[in-house]
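Worked example

This section walks through a single chain of length 109. The input is the sequence exactly as stored; nothing has been trimmed or padded.
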Amino acid sequence: MKQGGEELNRIVFYLITSVACLLVSAFFIIYMYWDASQPKVGPVGDGNPYPSFMQMLPIWSALFVGATQSPRAIYLYVKQRWREKRQEQGQEQGQEQEQEQEQEGKLRG
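Given that input, the structure is written out below as tokens.
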């Protein structure tokens, strides 16, 4: 069984990766359309200024992956934090019960 810290590190990495997919792909989409709108002269300026479907496919795919995996990563992060909080509360309650039992034992003994 994995420890809570290792699991949380994996989930945080998952969250950072999905956000990076969103940000990087959004940056490249904006950059490609900005570059296409710049006037070009000479042989470079001939042809279609906008990127083709095949050029945009990896960027749109990364955007789709980031958009679909971000809610899942957030859900897993919140769920893991909730589990850790419950375990901490359970340990605190267990320690309190042990202390109470020790005090009862001292009073009886």
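What to look for: The mean pLDDT is 83.
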